[in-house]
Specification:
- It comes from Anthurium amnicola.
- This is F-box/kelch-repeat protein SKIP6.
- It holds the Pfam family Kelch_FKB95.
- It is globular, with a radius of gyration of 18 Å.
- β9 and β10 form a beta hairpin.
- The strands form 3 sheets. Strands 9-10-11-12-16-15-14-13 form an 8-stranded mixed sheet. It has a 4-stranded antiparallel sheet with strand order 1-2-3-4, with no helix packed on it. Strands 5-6-7-8 form a 4-stranded antiparallel sheet.
- It contains 1 helix and 16 strands.
- The chain folds into 2 domains: about 80 residues, no CATH class; about 100 residues, no CATH class.
- It is mainly β and about 210 residues long.
């Protein structure tokens, strides 16, 4: 990449990987792309200075567009025509961190730790009912992914043996059904605890579902 990044937004659209932010707004390039036609080299993506922010707290790809939430509002990038713009006001007000898209619904969690889903067609956030008592409060540390049509939630457990280099990764798969009136009803279908050997100070910042 042409700029060092942390807490950037990234997503794959149309066979290309796009990355935005995670660096100073004045950095050039603030946004970049990598694809087959680039011959394994990152190329700059033009972006207006007025929409640039440093930290990206969460992002998703929806309908061929990259959406991200930052300190001062959400933004949208459409690779098809290279246009930039804001996300809807309702989406922006309810989107506080990491997110995932499952069956066209954007899932995230609020400051109270409740998982919510945003329906772009209705422009509305709805709490996912039926899972709060079985999951801890996700105030900042959970990551989410689409796992074969289910909402997968991962969060850090305790450090194994005190100061150690081993970390518990807790994960749960949630099957969400859309009910009459737009209500979202969730059911946890499985949970698992994984212990990983990781460098001291490591944290989970992103998760991605892959087929092996």
């Amino acid at each position: 990449m042409g700029a060092a990044r942390e807490f950037a937004a990234a997503g794959a659209v149309g066979g290309r990987i796009y990355v935005i932010g995670g660096c100073l707004p004045s950095s050039e390039p603030w946004a970049e792309a990598l694809g087959p036609e680039e011959a394994d080299a990152w190329v700059p993506v033009a972006s207006p200075f007025g929409i640039r922010e440093k930290w990206m707290h969460g992002n998703v790809v929806l309908d061929g567009k990259l959406l991200a939430v930052a300190d001062h509002g959400g933004l949208l990038f459409d690779p098809a025509d290279g246009s930039w713009g804001p996300v809807s006001t309702i989406l922006d007000m309810g989107w506080k961190g990491r997110a995932a898209v499952v069956d066209g619904i954007i899932y995230s969690y609020d400051f109270l730790g409740k998982i919510k889903g945003f329906d772009p067609a209705a422009d509305k956030w709805t709490e996912v009912e039926g899972v709060n008592e079985e999951l801890p409060k996700f105030l900042s540390g959970a990551t989410l992914a689409d796992l074969s049509g289910r909402l997968c939630v991962l969060w850090e457990g305790k450090r194994v043996n005190g100061r150690s280099k081993e970390m518990e990764i807790m994960c749960a798969a949630i099957e969400v059904n859309k009910e009459e009136g737009g209500r979202l009803r969730g059911k946890i279908v499985w949970t698992e605890v994984i212990v990983l050997a990781v460098p001291k100070g490591s944290t989970v910042s992103h998760c991605l579902a892959v087929e092996i």
